[in-house]
Amino acid sequence: MKRFFSFLTLCSVAMLLMGTLSCQREKRLDTNQLNKVDGLIDQALEEGLFPGGVLAVVYKDNLVLLKEYGNKSVYPDVEPVSVQTVFDLASVSKPFTAFSVMLLVEQGKIRLGDRLKLYFPEFPSNITIKHLLTHTSGIADYSNIGEELEKYGEGNREGLMKYILTRTQQSVPGKKFEYSCLNFVLLQYIVEKVSGMSLDVFTQEHIFKPLGMTSTAYNPSGEVLERTAPTEKVADRVLKGEVHDSLALYFNKGVSGNAGVFSTAEDLVVFAKMLMNNGVYNGKKIMGTRTLQTMVAVPEDLQPFGRSLGWDNYSPYSSDHGDLLSRKETFGHTGYTGTSFFIDPVNELAVIFLAHRVHPYNVGNMVPFRSKLANIIAGALP
User: Fold this and answer.
1) What global pTM score does this model have?
2) What is the DSSP letter of 85?
3) For 93-105, how does the pLDDT look when each residue is reduced to its tens digit (9 = 90+)?
4) What architecture does CATH give domain 30-378?
């Protein structure tokens, strides 16, 4: 009997060890499959889709890939990109605005159901903060920014607010999805009004600094500016450290709810890890679990539109997520300059790709490339 017990014990230990080894194997992505990204990115570089980029992949809280490709600059001089290169995130800035809003919700200072009229009496009474976050407000996107600049003047926030008023009531709030940067400009102004801080200060104090994201900022300066990749050639100069988005640049002087954040892939890895760990990073709580879960889930009453609070889940814009990741749970955002950031919480996977497709000229469609990239990486899942 004793011998039989020993045999069972040995078997149990062996099975436990085998299970442990099996679990360890399961935590690893298929390296051969993952290496296929090199061919896809090299092809994109040859075709001139973008001059350079940095790819980061996080799996089960581990950074499994961080690699640079191509050049940081091709005009006027050629300079290779590095993993330390800072990129203009364009609309990947929007999740940071949304994160700021959710922090204020968590602090009990605003509610998702608050009507825009509460903060700006001149606006229609049926638009809520939730509508702004999900692009279901009925506010159309901006059109010819040059005409608006002539009419209202550069840096004129009051003029911009008057312009946004002309874009409201395009559809009934909550009944249609229409992507509009103006939603996030209004969210910026709400954050600033409620917190008493400008958006750049609020994000620095509540997000970037607590997470140690030292290469992330609006209007980068000093050493961070030196590492920044240039974007488009405008007239006789190339933009560098100035946000590419004209609304953000001319009306909000680079600090805008819709665009303006500059960052590195490494810093965004930190942000991704925090999101994947229920709002905690390195033992430091940045956001409460319930707040974060609410933020990345599509609201029940807006299910047909596929947008969560500041993120894209399965809207018509989500084809960049590819075909193989969790359809409804995957959330992320892309940027006009060539940036993308998305997380599949079911598979515990994050993919970050930063590029500057607008340098030195605005060309190329990133959607097919991003989708193929996502498929290759998803194919490496165990």
Assistant:
1) 0.93
2) -
3) 999 999 999 999 9
4) 3-Layer(aba) Sandwich (3.40)
